[in-house]
Amino acid sequence: MATSEEGLIELCHGNGGWLMHELIEDIIRPALANPMLDTQLDAAKLPALEGLPVITTDGFTVQPLEFPGGDIGSLAVHGTINDLAVSGAVPLYLTLNLFIEEGFEISRLARLIKSLGQAADSTGVVVVAGDTKVLPRGQCGGIYLATTGIGTLAPGTNLGMGFVQPGDKVLVSGPIGDHGTAVMLAREQFGLSGTLLSDSASVLPLTLALQGLDGIRFMRDPTRGGLATVAYELCRATGLGINLWQEAIPVSDQVRGVCDLLGYDPYYLACEGRVMAIVSMSDAPSALKRWQALPAGSHAAIVGEIQSNHSRVVLTTDYGGERILEELEDDPLPRIC
Amino acid sequence: MATSEEGLIELCHGNGGWLMHELIEDIIRPALANPMLDTQLDAAKLPALEGLPVITTDGFTVQPLEFPGGDIGSLAVHGTINDLAVSGAVPLYLTLNLFIEEGFEISRLARLIKSLGQAADSTGVVVVAGDTKVLPRGQCGGIYLATTGIGTLAPGTNLGMGFVQPGDKVLVSGPIGDHGTAVMLAREQFGLSGTLLSDSASVLPLTLALQGLDGIRFMRDPTRGGLATVAYELCRATGLGINLWQEAIPVSDQVRGVCDLLGYDPYYLACEGRVMAIVSMSDAPSALKRWQALPAGSHAAIVGEIQSNHSRVVLTTDYGGERILEELEDDPLPRIC
Question: Which biological process, per GO, is one annotated for this protein (chains A, B) (predicted)?
């Protein structure tokens, strides 16, 4: 038995023997090719880091594994480097854990890892270490990934919820909910389909664009639970409230249409390539300008404001009314990342 | 519905809403308590690293989740820091990914995370970032972990398979196969039981003990596939052969008994707290002495030698014969880590 792209993953591909070796050398290593990935070593030695290290980790269990605009491979890269980017860091290295189900098509694995490698390449990060486990049929939904990212903080960067003040503005870098909606449509469980692409992408150009702007308080990529959930975390951490202006929040027609049909709120749907930033009142216009000058920020908008007279997330509706966005208990769209 | 230790994990515990927040704050955070784990941040900011960074990552899918001498929580810590330690590094930080199956007992999760936290504490590493995903019932065997470890290389450390030379000695720090055998006995699938404990432990005291010894070429913790598999990786990388001396290899009576009964070779069984080291002929005796002076190394032994006249792993048996240890294709004991 040899590992070939036509075959299926078997339990023995995860047991440390030569079949695992072959899988790693034939399928995984070429897709992640870089001089720092030494599959003979238990641990990767990295050059000295210039700047303070920043580290983050994420698990990925999205269903379906491939969706319009991305797949679990590219999503894992984007999701991880975005967590570094919104912390004010420049991502440098990734590690990769694979949990693969017995019976998974090797050709599909190769495709997903290739996509992961391309996403890493195009954002200038390298995969330096990895681990593969194979689970018995029925004990793993195809493939799960875990990626850990390491970067370094740009000098002088100091972002955090603790810096947020009443009167600060809320910015988003583009239309919200595209990823959640695209993945949901790809499941075809509601009999809906569309041409919407996930927004899965690196947000590094967006976060770098705001570098050096004094009034940047905090950035976050609104993934699981969407914009409203990040807003709630902010309220909880600061004791402040957030007003969001429905009219100002960019939502694509397709996302709006799906939400209207199914009764979803786009504010709770995941993005995987957007940034929410809290910026001082005085610097908000120049932050917006910097974003709008980028292709990824052409639909950026100032969508709300930090309030001291309440501690909820309140939506000012298009009709001028106010509606409290309740904190999410259970996501209507599980497994979107 | 509130998160309590009596309850079961539900899908909503992984969806980014307040139930996930509660799970993290009530169950996970206290067990990993350290000032650097800030659950409000997407990424952890670390102090500047003194020395070159070393990074490794591992997935853990062991069955059963709890076994004599350890559990998946402590095993994840040991497995990850050991990969750093055998690279000549001092482990500093861990990140943690949880993949939990819907219906998993929260009290059990709390117990496993507590064990993980204690193992980290006792080896001086801190968990600085994490991520939790919940999978639908039947799509995850209880719980899978992925841990990434960061450490720094001790100055002057230069280990690697490339340094190995004919005539070098092979050392092991203690009896082999305890972990694999203990986990197998815990499954009770063969109707066997015993008092054997897994050797799951940090090997850092062992690797630090060899620091500064010129003749250290390479170290590895023989986990999946055991001593024979590490030996084969070494042969493949160097083109050299390895002779192992059956008589010299420490194997506990219980492991030997189980192997005799079931027809296993202990050389393929996993350890999770042992080191295999390749040391120059002249420094091998002092390396052995350093190990034997430690509680974890009291059964350390010189068990073989690097050869240039073949490129296989050859066992000199107790009866003076020679037997090629074939390279493992499929592990008789899957999911031991």
Answer: protein maturation
